[in-house]
Predict the structure.
Amino acid sequence: MSIKIGDNNKIKNSTIANTVNGNAEPTKKNWCEKHPIISDIIVSVIAGVILLFPFWADIVKFIEGVF
Protein backbone atom coordinates (compact mmCIF):
# COMPACT_ATOMS: atom_id res chain seq x y z
CA MET A 1 0.00 0.00 0.00
CA SER A 2 1.43 3.35 -0.97
CA ILE A 3 0.39 6.88 -0.18
CA LYS A 4 0.47 9.56 -2.81
CA ILE A 5 0.84 13.11 -1.66
CA GLY A 6 -0.82 15.60 -3.93
CA ASP A 7 -4.15 16.90 -5.19
CA ASN A 8 -5.67 13.48 -5.84
CA ASN A 9 -5.85 12.57 -2.15
CA LYS A 10 -9.33 13.53 -0.98
CA ILE A 11 -10.05 12.13 2.48
CA LYS A 12 -13.72 12.26 3.46
CA ASN A 13 -15.52 10.82 6.48
CA SER A 14 -12.39 9.14 7.79
CA THR A 15 -11.57 8.18 11.36
CA ILE A 16 -7.91 8.61 12.15
CA ALA A 17 -7.96 6.99 15.60
CA ASN A 18 -10.35 4.18 16.45
CA THR A 19 -10.10 4.46 20.21
CA VAL A 20 -9.51 7.31 22.59
CA ASN A 21 -8.45 6.27 26.09
CA GLY A 22 -9.68 2.75 25.42
CA ASN A 23 -13.20 3.92 24.58
CA ALA A 24 -14.37 3.28 21.02
CA GLU A 25 -17.53 5.39 21.40
CA PRO A 26 -17.31 9.16 21.79
CA THR A 27 -18.72 10.46 25.04
CA LYS A 28 -21.98 12.34 24.79
CA LYS A 29 -22.08 15.82 26.27
CA ASN A 30 -24.97 16.87 28.45
CA TRP A 31 -26.93 20.08 27.89
CA CYS A 32 -24.78 22.18 30.26
CA GLU A 33 -21.58 21.12 28.51
CA LYS A 34 -23.04 21.93 25.09
CA HIS A 35 -24.33 25.38 26.14
CA PRO A 36 -22.13 26.71 28.97
CA ILE A 37 -22.94 30.39 28.48
CA ILE A 38 -26.70 29.87 28.47
CA SER A 39 -26.54 27.66 31.56
CA ASP A 40 -24.36 30.25 33.37
CA ILE A 41 -26.89 32.97 32.58
CA ILE A 42 -29.78 30.85 33.86
CA VAL A 43 -27.94 30.06 37.11
CA SER A 44 -27.04 33.74 37.59
CA VAL A 45 -30.65 34.85 37.09
CA ILE A 46 -31.91 32.25 39.58
CA ALA A 47 -29.28 33.32 42.15
CA GLY A 48 -30.20 36.98 41.62
CA VAL A 49 -33.89 36.26 42.20
CA ILE A 50 -33.10 34.36 45.39
CA LEU A 51 -30.98 37.26 46.65
CA LEU A 52 -33.91 39.66 46.13
CA PHE A 53 -35.97 38.00 48.88
CA PRO A 54 -36.34 40.23 51.96
CA PHE A 55 -35.27 37.66 54.59
CA TRP A 56 -31.60 38.30 53.77
CA ALA A 57 -31.74 41.53 55.82
CA ASP A 58 -32.64 39.48 58.91
CA ILE A 59 -29.77 37.08 58.25
CA VAL A 60 -27.29 39.96 57.87
CA LYS A 61 -28.50 41.51 61.16
CA PHE A 62 -28.12 38.17 62.91
CA ILE A 63 -24.56 37.69 61.63
CA GLU A 64 -23.65 41.27 62.60
CA GLY A 65 -25.09 40.65 66.09
CA VAL A 66 -22.94 37.52 66.53
CA PHE A 67 -19.74 39.43 65.82
Observations:
- The longest helix spans residues 36-51.
- Residues 31-66 form one domain.
- The chain has three helices and no strands.
